[in-house]
Amino acid sequence: MSDAVSRPTLEAVAARAGVSRATVSRVVNGGDGVREPLVERVRRAVEELGYVPNQAARSLVTRRHDAVAVVIAEPETRIFTDPFFALQLRGISKELTAHDNQLVLLLTEGRDDHARVARYLAGGHVDGALVFSLHLDDPLPGLIEGAGVPTVFGGRPGWSDGTDSAVYVDCDNRGGAEDAVRHLVGLGRTRIAHITGPLDQTSAADRLQGYRDVMGETDPRLVVASDFTPTGGERAMGELLDRCPDVDAVFAANDLTALGALRVLRERGRRVPEDVAVIGFDDVLPVAEQTEPPLTTVRQDIEEMGRLMARLLLSTLARGGPATGAPSSVVLPTTLIRRATA
Amino acid sequence: MSDAVSRPTLEAVAARAGVSRATVSRVVNGGDGVREPLVERVRRAVEELGYVPNQAARSLVTRRHDAVAVVIAEPETRIFTDPFFALQLRGISKELTAHDNQLVLLLTEGRDDHARVARYLAGGHVDGALVFSLHLDDPLPGLIEGAGVPTVFGGRPGWSDGTDSAVYVDCDNRGGAEDAVRHLVGLGRTRIAHITGPLDQTSAADRLQGYRDVMGETDPRLVVASDFTPTGGERAMGELLDRCPDVDAVFAANDLTALGALRVLRERGRRVPEDVAVIGFDDVLPVAEQTEPPLTTVRQDIEEMGRLMARLLLSTLARGGPATGAPSSVVLPTTLIRRATA
DNA sequence: CTGAAAGCGCTAACAT
DNA sequence: ATGTTAGCGCTTTCAG
């Protein structure tokens, strides 16, 4: 009820414990250099008064907030279809929590929101930022750079300038794609198609590159662009069947796309994997395990990537700025998970 | 880069504009009671220096943070399967953003995290809280009550004491369920089953109640408990078919459950809706529109519920505490969306 | 309408 | 090892 008024201050605790504010502060912040009996007395006073430090006052002097922003700049509705973000968020949340940091979520709905986000980051409300889903033409990285906030990106950023300086966590999209396609080749398939993701994202572009690495020059009609969604996958698969009725394998850019593709294949009476083998990417369990038949896919450890991003950022912050031997980007390996579709 | 050091202060702006700190503060906070020429001068100084107010310093004196916590206490993995939370988050985010408030996300993974959340809320880091997914035996509401932070709940809380005081936003689960079942009855179905959600959540309990309202006394074997997940829906549908092979309609507690049920029905060779009609609940588009056949379901406006929760909380905060004519809970209507399964 | 001054609650030198 | 003191950057009376 009437709380704000009555919150005890350091002063109050000090009075109660019969010590100075400084001593209480020391105890509250770890208790180093304070003798045991005093520590004990202060602890009790804190307990009795239900003292909780005022974060604003603390931040004002330490210039730290123990909070990091998570910026999700997905203009489209993918966030709401793909468990990807939720998983990543969970990893981030776990890691931040373990280090007593708070997660400030910044969702952007479009260009208009970019300025707001930039302003917020520049405002020094948070110690750092974790940024997702950049597209090639995204103005956000520039704005963030300008804000001067330590940042780790989720997925390799695609813009050209200053690429080296950007720290990111990604999975080996290209290598994973190569594995997938090689597997298809090993199965004896010869008309192997690829349904891409949005090619203005590096993850999609890299997977396409992996496909090309293995396939070399192929019938260009075997590559059809899509957008990481089930509906997009359906449309693309439809086109594919129309253009190349003899297709005998499909590497879909992600599991959701594969889901759509499977649906169309079934509708059109193609047996999977007998007539057409299918491989996805991500291994988002609720999707991949539940398709019919269960999806063979390239697994990336999404939650771990989230955790890693947070860890990287926190370690950067701990070193006091990106200057001191900044940690570098991490690219995690992928694994091909064989289920029933290939 | 080296930013924190160089961030200009009110003082700097004041100096540049040739006025006092107080005047700058007034202008920055709306400019009431400052004459136009001065306002203009100050604005320019702010612009030129790129001044951004220090939130910590401001909070220290105003005792406001312009931030609210969103607590998602979903012990299970539902968050990562069901677009429900993402949609709600989006609604909340939009509303908060519109009022210059920040969203602090608190994800809890289990009982251990409860204390942490309670401590955080009690710590006065945020002005209020939006809390989700309470189960009947959840200790969180009590802890939150204790923290003395204005709170709005997502979904009717189920615990018995002090229920009246809790403000929540929910949809008319019972009424929606009644509509669904009545529709099934109108279709001439007589063996209408219900696959429930987790009955320790009021949303699931209320939907079951709605089913009972219409069905009255029925074969108890027609009601089978589940958990809002596709896998749960599969299992439940399987049991149902074993126990009551003559079932001719199913009202599933949510769309994901319906998804699982549809899968099993297809596997077992039952035609939908000819042999068995199916209705879901939620109308989460990516799910409901994409089932085979498209799902008839009870729609609730999830994003709007999120927006409403935020609006309610903010208005409470604006009035300066829950005391002054606190806004009361809101229950939104539902609509039956007829697609192909019933 | 504007300025001067007093803190908000805390940490971090600096003394002791 | 503990206490004293000086702010962190801002808002808000209170004078003028």
Provide key terms for this protein.
homodimer; 342 residues; alpha/beta; 434 Repressor (Amino-terminal Domain); Rossmann fold; 3 domains; 6-stranded parallel β-sheet; 6-stranded mixed β-sheet; 44% helix; elongated; disordered N terminus; DNA-binding; transcription regulation (chains A, B); Lambda_DNA-bd_dom_sf (chains A, B); LacI family DNA-binding transcriptional regulator (chains A, B)
Quick rundown:
Two copies of one chain form a homodimer. The first copy, chain A, has 342 residues and is of the alpha/beta class.
Query: How many discrete structural domains of chain A?
Result: 3
Which range does the strand content of chain A fall in? 15-25%
Radius of gyration of chain A: 25 Å
Name the shape of chain A in a single word: elongated
C-alpha end-to-end distance of chain A: 61 Å
Instruction: Give the integer mean of the pLDDT values of chain A.
Output: 90
Oligomer: homodimer
The run of helices and strands of chain A is HHHHEHEHEHEEHEHEHEHEHEHEE
DSSP strand count of chain A: 12
Strand order of the largest sheet of chain A: 2-1-3-4-5-11
The CATH class of the largest domain in chain A is identified as Alpha Beta
Largest interface: A-B, 55 and 58 residues
CATH superfamily of the largest domain in chain A: Response regulator
What is the CATH topology classification name of the largest domain in chain A? Answer: Rossmann fold
Briefly note the structural class of the backbone of chain A.
alpha/beta
Number of helical runs of chain A? 13
Low-confidence stretches of chain A: 1-5
Biggest sheet overview of chain A: 6 strands, parallel
Share of helix among residues of chain A? 40-55%
CATH architecture of the largest domain in chain A: 3-Layer(aba) Sandwich
